Amino acid sequence: MTLWLAIVLVALVSIGFKAAGPVLLGDREMPPRLARVIALLAPALLAGLVLTEVTGPAWSGVDWTLCAGLAAITVTYLLRVPVLAAILCGVVVTAALRFLI
């Protein structure tokens, strides 16, 4: 029961935080400096999540097949391939390497 209570409380706090921005700011525009920081926050958080997922706890679970897949995604994306096709390429490379091992 306490687990479900914790889940509900975390959900309510999350909803409260998300609602606080529009309620407090209203129709006012954010300062340009704050807008730049917020715009850069999402890619930084995403990079951190990907890094921790790839490396594992204490950098002990580095999976080189996953690193090769991420490299394939990077290369295909830099070659101006659409994002979905680049991700599919990375999945195929990772799956193929894991199959061959």
Distance between the termini: 44 Å
Largest sheet: none
Helix count from the secondary structure assignment: 4
Form type: extended
Instruction: Give the structural class.
Output: mainly alpha
Order of helices and strands: HHHH
Using the CA coordinates, give the radius of gyration.
20 Å
**Overall average residue pLDDT:** 89
What fraction strand?
under 5%
Keywords: Membrane, Transmembrane, Transmembrane helix
Transmembrane segments: 34-51, 83-100
Protein name: AzlD domain-containing protein
Pfam families: AzlD
Description:
Helix content is 80%, strand content 0%. It is an all-alpha fold and 101 residues long. Helix 3 runs antiparallel to helix 4 (83-100). The protein is extended and about 55 Å long. InterPro entries: Brnchd-chn_aa_trnsp_AzlD. It comes from Amycolatopsis speibonae. Pfam families: AzlD.
Can you lay out the helices and strands and say which pair or pack?
Elements: H1 2-25, H2 32-55, H3 64-78, H4 83-100
Helix pairs in contact: 3-4
